[in-house]
Amino acid sequence: MLDVVVIGAGLSGLAAAGRLARDGYRVRVLEARGRLGGRVATRRPPGWEVPIESGAEFVHEDPDNLVHALHAAKLRLSEVAPRQRVAVRGRLRDGRRLFARVQEALAEPPAAEGPIDALLRERLSDREQVDYALTFVRGFHAADPARASAFSLAGQGGASESRQIPAGYDRLVEHLARPLSGLVQTSVAVRLVRWKKGSVELQARSRAGWALEVPRARAVLVTAPVAVLAAHRPRFAPVLPSTKRRAIAALATGNVVKVHLRFRRVLWKRLEPLGFVLVPGGPLNAWWTRGRDVPVLVGWAGGPIADRLAGRDPEAIIAIACRTIAGALGLRRSDVAAELEDALVDDWSRDPWALGAYSWVPVGARWAQSALGAPVDETIFFAGEATHDAGMNGTTAGALQTAERAVAELRAALG
């Protein structure tokens, strides 16, 4: 009999399982995908100069747990050039003051709850600032400004700096999985969690559709994204308490579409270092590079902006991306067409084990994060970015912190 079975091999699941295994608990990790990492998904396509981050890409802050994990994995960080530019009618403008003004407007918590768009209109002085701020909320937070909680977004920090992991985010995944050799099973989808206090039985199937045998356990740690839980994967028997079900229904998930364009040469050489380019109103509203003199551009659409692209044919999205970046950087379309060597598209709404990119909090739903993370009868435990209740939902650092919380709860319950 196992002590803990962990559902999901994303960062929170691997971090928690590794800690428990080192403490001597009998652990098993079950992952529905054929790979580890969850919404950390690094690709290394042939011919590309750098690893491609389909999912999580940046390290925005310095929380001790994430920095410690990166140092332990011997991973260095590189900073994206701290330049903020705004593309307006085919011309680039310096956007640093505009970005700073928007961050200032988001720095203090509101006096009363309400949608973030109302707070931004109240705090910002002109239409350009408001438009930029709303684009930032839609893109960076993948949220709908008309529905997103001002309490959840204002006063919680932001993208003060952006660093990348040149070796690839998956190297952190490999580091977290190292203590779990032989304890992780991939391509195992848990369909049903049958439980009573102190005992859990799981029904699971392989990708071929065959039933798989899973040992009983004293507890289960669920790290599936909230959108997947809302789709009743897995199901629970008996059903989860009503507070837990309401919390799952209350939280929202934003989608992200990323486009990676690889060129034969750096077409934007005169603009290096490029930094970040925001395209207000564009179908892909933010762009950046993967390093100086690397001929790769990444386009990003988040939240309601991504919803307009989600589900479309990848070739159509690539064509839209090329038109967008040509206009934003003042490049000739003929040059973009002639020099484009390869392109990749990631649409997280199409991932059945994510159903979107990361969570955000609607107005009045701040209670739901801690409610989602709360244990059930010392038997069912929860971790993952959506359970972080202190402003770090949607981040890898937040996912790792919830793993620490869940490990402490499991230790207390199991002894």
Structure characterization notes:
It is a single chain. With 415 residues, the chain is of the alpha/beta class. The chain has 2 domains: 2-74 and 168-251 and 365-414, 3-Layer(bba) Sandwich (FAD/NAD(P)-binding domain); 83-160 and 256-350, Polyamine Oxidase, Chain A, domain 2 (Alpha-Beta Complex). The protein is 32% helix and 24% strand. It is built from 14 helices and 23 strands. It has helices at 11-22, 64-72, 96-105, 116-123, 127-140, 150-153, 170-177, 226-230, 242-250, 304-307, 314-329, 333-339, 367-373, 396-414, and strands spanning 2-7, 27-30, 42-43, 52-53, 58-59, 78-79, 84-88, 91-94, 163-164, 184-185, 188-196, 199-206, 211-212, 217-222, 235-237, 252-254, 256-263, 276-278, 286-289, 296-302, 340-347, 358-360, 380-382. The protein has a 7-stranded mixed sheet with strand order 8-7-18-19-20-17-21, sandwiched between helices. Strands 10-2-1-14-23 form a 5-stranded parallel sheet, covered by helices on one side. Strand 12 and strand 13 (211-212) form a beta hairpin. Helix 9 (242-250) crosses helix 13. The mean pLDDT is 95.
What is the gist of this entry?
With 415 residues, this protein is α/β, with parallel strands linked by helices. It has helices at residues 11-22, 64-72, 96-105, 116-123, 127-140, 150-153, 170-177, 226-230, 242-250, 304-307, 314-329, 333-339, 367-373, 396-414; strands at residues 2-7, 27-30, 42-43, 52-53, 58-59, 78-79, 84-88, 91-94, 163-164, 184-185, 188-196, 199-206, 211-212, 217-222, 235-237, 252-254, 256-263, 276-278, 286-289, 296-302, 340-347, 358-360, 380-382. Helix content is 32%, strand content 24%.
